[in-house]
């Protein structure tokens, strides 16, 4: 199974979307003929992929798969390739038969997704030693079934799933044994590159939090009789971690850099269609333009607040100091900020909002260990019965004296931008539009990449920025500076043009980011998700360019609300396909 396939089933922004098999259209879509036709083809792909990732299918609401688990049986890579090649033939036949332009667009999306998956699987098999972070896999499998938005009668399936993970059910081997076998069978293959040592060490360090997190999830329910199964599974997971320490860690690579072919493939899979050196040039230019804006804005804030400095770095540090939010006040604060943002959106007629409130919650300790950054928790997109996305804020810890450990996400000036990105008008609104407006499966799942999702999130920050307090405007620019920095630091690190220490120093000193966030950034570029971080500024640039072209074409007829509503109604289209839809459908419809 390729990383591309795993990305398809991973919920969250540093993770993609779960897969599902369904009949009909996504979620609450109003059925139309072309959507129904398109979804027939999407189901062909989903039926094959769900055989390998049934946890993901259940994550989107497919009945009957809650008790099933990931396939790590023998000959996994070739079986997944054969499966995808079979379905590709069916898609190619459809491309010759269908005539509706949107169905043809969706078929192209599906074929590209299948081809990318096959390519990634072949590259990984040729270059990489298989390694599985089972702590996160198993925690995610249990967490996917125990959630306040999931029906209580589905919770019991989590125990069955755990029994299968542990090999306690007839016909099932312990998942840890299968993972060991998939790695060990490739130990003697010449030329394979092991996982990065730092990644393995961090996975091991966080493993116990994942194991404890499973127990915490179960203990928070009224389920009975799970303790024996949990104890057996937890013991296996701990044994597996020791095996990883003994067998994988010595084979791990000291150099974080991927083979060049793997890095190029990663960029493509995240939706970035530029070569690394082009990204470096574009990101560097954007970085300087943004920094110039910050240098002009910082003195205005300093004068307003009485700060004895005009340096944007020092002004940001003072805003963090003076605006720190305690952990027990985070939820109320972010709800209040969201309300003010919604008032701006309505007053300025930026975009149409859902009638319901957006969800915001604090992560558990285990969730915080698994994903230490703020993110959107996406519900099932298939068979949704009213569940909605949640903006999830990592849990803060307290010092012995009762004070709260602060982060770059827990101060007032920064909370505006973060809420705009993750909630409204950013990701929460983006995915709510999929659930409440409805698009084809191809546009909700297979078109997904970081460029179209994170590009919208960064664009969402930009459209509300003019209406924010000056302090929040500065932090919006700081976050944009970070995204431009990602676009050149990520490829520079992976080309060996800069060291991790130099990158971290620049992030801390020039981008005014705290040590913890800076460390997470470097880990992200080097081994967590190489290439992904470039997609933010890349996708943002595509959105800004598209808007400019639309304004040029429409002039006085340009309506931001209509433009934004149309963009979201298209689903998660790749930038070039979105541009085609906007210029050929939206622009003509707006001319008076």
Task: Describe, in plain words, how this protein is organized in 3D.
The chain is mainly alpha-helical. It has a domain of 120 residues. It has 25 helices and 3 strands. Strands 1-3-2 form a 3-stranded mixed sheet, covered by helices on one side. α9 runs antiparallel to α10, α14 crosses α16 and α16 crosses α20. The protein is globular, with a radius of gyration of 24 Å.
Structure, briefly:
This protein is mainly α and 592 residues long. It has 25 helices and 3 strands.
- Rg, please? 24 Å
Structural class: mainly alpha
Ends distance? 52 Å
Q: How many strands appear in the DSSP assignment? A: 3
Helix content: 55-70%
Strand order of the largest sheet: 1-3-2
- Which ranges are low-confidence, i.e. pLDDT below 50, for 5 or more consecutive residues? 1-31
Note the main sheet: 3 strands, mixed
Portion in beta strands: under 5%
Q: Write the H/E string, N to C.
A: HHHHHHHHHHHHHHEHEEHHHHHHHHHH
**H/I helix tally:** 25
The average pLDDT is 91
Overall geometry comes to: globular
Keywords:
single chain, 592 residues, mainly alpha, three-stranded mixed β-sheet, 25 helices, 3 strands, globular, disordered N terminus
Topology:
Layout: H1 3-8, H2 33-50, H3 54-59, H4 76-97, H5 101-127, H6 134-143, H7 156-165, H8 175-184, H9 197-219, H10 227-248, H11 260-269, H12 276-305, H13 312-322, H14 330-347, E1 359-362, H15 365-370, E2 375-377, E3 390-393, H16 412-422, H17 427-436, H18 441-446, H19 450-464, H20 470-494, H21 500-509, H22 515-528, H23 535-554, H24 560-569, H25 575-590
Parallel strand pairs: 1-3
Antiparallel strand pairs: 2-3
Helix pairs in contact: 2-4, 2-5, 4-5, 5-11, 6-7, 6-9, 8-10, 9-10, 12-20, 14-16, 16-19, 16-20, 19-23, 20-22, 20-23, 21-22, 23-25
């Amino acid at each position: 199974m390729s990383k591309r396939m795993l990305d398809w089933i991973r919920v969250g922004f540093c993770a993609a979307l779960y897969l599902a098999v369904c009949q009909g259209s996504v979620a609450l879509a109003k059925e139309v003929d072309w959507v129904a036709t398109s979804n027939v083809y999407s189901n062909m792909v989903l039926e094959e992929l769900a055989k390998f990732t049934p946890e993901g299918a259940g994550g989107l609401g497919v009945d009957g798969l809650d008790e099933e688990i990931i396939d790590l049986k023998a000959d996994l890579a070739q079986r997944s390739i054969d499966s995808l090649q079979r379905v590709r033939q069916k898609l190619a036949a459809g491309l010759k038969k269908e005539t509706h332009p949107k169905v043809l667009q969706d078929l192209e999306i599906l074929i590209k997704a299948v081809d990318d998956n096959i390519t990634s699987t072949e590259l990984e098999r040729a270059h990489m030693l298989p390694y599985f972070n089972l702590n996160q896999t198993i925690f995610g499998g249990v967490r996917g079934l125990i959630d306040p938005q999931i029906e209580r009668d589905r919770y019991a399936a989590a125990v069955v799933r755990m029994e299968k993970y542990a090999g306690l059910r007839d016909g099932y081997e312990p998942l840890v044994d299968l993972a060991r076998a998939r790695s060990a069978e490739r130990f003697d293959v010449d030329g394979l590159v092991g996982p990065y040592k730092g990644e393995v060490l961090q996975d091991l360090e966080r493993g116990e939090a994942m194991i404890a997190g499973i127990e915490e999830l179960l203990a928070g329910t009224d389920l009975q009789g799970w303790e024996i199964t949990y104890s057996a599974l937890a013991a296996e997971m701990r044994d597996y971690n020791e095996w990883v320490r003994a067998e994988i860690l010595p084979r791990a690579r000291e150099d974080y850099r991927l083979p060049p072919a793997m890095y190029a493939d990663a960029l493509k899979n995240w939706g970035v269609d530029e070569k690394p050196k082009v990204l470096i040039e574009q990101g560097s230019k954007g970085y300087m333009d943004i920094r110039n804006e910050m240098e002009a804005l910082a003195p205005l804030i300093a004068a307003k607040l009485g700060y004895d400095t005009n340096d944007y770095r020092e002004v940001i540090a003072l805003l963090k100091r003076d605006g720190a939010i305690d952990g027990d006040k985070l939820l109320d604060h972010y709800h209040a900020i969201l309300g003010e943002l919604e008032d701006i959106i309505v007053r300025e007629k930026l975009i149409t909002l859902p009638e319901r409130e957006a969800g915001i919650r604090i992560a558990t300790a285990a969730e915080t260990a698994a994903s230490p950054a703020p993110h959107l928790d996406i519900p099932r997109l298939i068979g949704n019965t009213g569940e909605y996305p949640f903006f999830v804020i990592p849990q803060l810890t307290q010092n012995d004296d009762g004070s709260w450990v602060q982060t770059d996400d827990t101060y007032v000036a920064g909370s505006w931008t973060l809420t705009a990105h993750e909630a409204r008008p950013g990701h929460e609104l983006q995915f709510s539009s999929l659930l409440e407006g409805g698009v084809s499966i191809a546009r909700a799942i297979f078109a997904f990449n970081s460029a179209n999702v994170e590009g919208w999130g960064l664009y969402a920050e930009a459209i509300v920025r003019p209406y924010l307090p000056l302090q929040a405007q500065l932090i919006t620019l700081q976050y944009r500076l970070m995204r431009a920095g990602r676009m050149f630091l990520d490829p520079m690190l992976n080309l060996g043009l800069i060291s991790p220490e130099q990158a971290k120093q620049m992030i801390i000193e020039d981008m005014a980011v705290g040590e913890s966030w800076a460390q997470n950034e470097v880990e992200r570029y080097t081994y967590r998700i190489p290439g992904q971080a470039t997609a933010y500024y890349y996708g943002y640039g595509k959105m800004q360019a598209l808007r400019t072209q639309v304004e040029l074409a429409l002039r006085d007829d340009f309506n931001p609300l209509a433009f934004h509503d149309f963009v979201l109604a298209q689903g998660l289209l790749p930038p070039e396909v979105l541009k085609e839809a906007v210029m050929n459908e939206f622009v003509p419809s707006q001319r008076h």
